[in-house]
Design brief:
Blueprint (H helix, E strand, L loop, with lengths): L1 E7 L2 H9 L1 H8 L3 E7 L12 E2 L9 E2 L1 H9 L6 E11 L2 H7 L4 E6 L15 E4 L9 H12 L32 E2 L2 E2 L9 H19 L11 H9 L4 H6 L23
Helix pairs in contact: 1-5
């Protein structure tokens, strides 16, 4: 079981994410556990004050390092103590897959002007969900919770489903369709309705390559492309220079049909 511990000043913001939908069902089944720790319980004063004015002046308030330390000490030992901050490393699918192999993850969710910088000595890594600033770390924590929890074995019904997700394969995901077969003049691609699984797989791979090339070509350099992918990308208009920049292997050379040898006539 993977345990998520979130240290926050507003546990009520994270409670719905921990109680509903797939995450909530996974908790009920004992696949994951989510602990919401209110840092005000470790303020050390009757007013539950956890922050103070920054040394050197400036706007806003800073969460004290001693409060964070006491809150962390109340938890069982964690494999990772993660600070959610715009200054952290980007949170990616690869990081989510790595964290899903742990047994206990603790997250520090900041507010106001963030934590005293000495908190950095209490954490094992810092993560950011993007190059923007929010009012606190709870929304970022909810993103990480959903991204990591769904990778825990048994949480999602089909254990192979997440392997085809965007970024898991190195590419954006292919488009999906369901009923109705026709909607406002838009139909479902015929290949998806034909029952040929090999053709469906080839179409989906080609669609994933096309979407990635159009929307996130930067991903192609680390997507482990195959010779067949090179053929598809070339057909989509990729140049030789682009294929080289993406480390794409040479496309397979089509085989020439063998010429039949003329049959010798027997002499009677």
């Amino acid at each position: 079981m993977l345990t998520f511990s979130f240290l926050t000043l507003f546990p009520e913001l994270l409670a719905p994410f921990a109680a509903e939908a797939i995450v909530g069902k996974a908790r009920e089944r004992g696949l994951i556990d989510v602990r919401l720790v209110n840092m005000r319980d470790f303020s050390g004063n009757k007013h539950l004050k956890v922050d103070d004015a920054p040394y050197g002046g400036g706007a806003g308030m800073v969460i004290r390092v001693d409060v964070a330390e006491r809150a962390l000490a109340s938890l069982p030992p964690a494999d990772e103590v993660i600070l959610l901050t715009p200054a952290g490393a980007p949170f990616t699918q690869a990081v989510a897959e790595e964290l899903a192999t742990r047994s206990h993850l603790a997250f520090l969710c900041g507010r106001y002007e963030g934590f005293d910088a000495r908190v950095e000595g209490l954490v094992t890594r810092e993560l950011s969900i993007g190059d923007f600033v929010m009012m606190g770390g709870e929304a970022a924590a909810a993103c990480v919770l959903e991204a990591v929890a769904r990778l825990v074995p048994g949480v999602i019904g089909d254990p192979d489903s997440h392997r085809a997700d965007s970024f898991s394969s190195g590419l954006l995901d292919y488009p999906e369709y369901t009923r109705p077969p026709e909607w406002r003049g838009l139909g479902v691609p015929e290949v998806l309705r034909g029952g040929n699984h090999a053709a469906v797989a080839a179409w989906r791979r080609a669609q994933a390559l096309e979407r990635t090339r159009q929307r996130r070509p930067d991903l192609l350099a680390s997507a482990a492309l195959s010779p067949q992918d090179s053929t598809v990308l070339s057909a989509l208009g990729a140049t030789t220079q682009e294929l080289q920049a993406w480390n794409a292997p040479p496309a397979p050379v089509p085989r020439r049909p063998r010429r039949k040898k003329p049959q010798e006539t027997r002499k009677e």
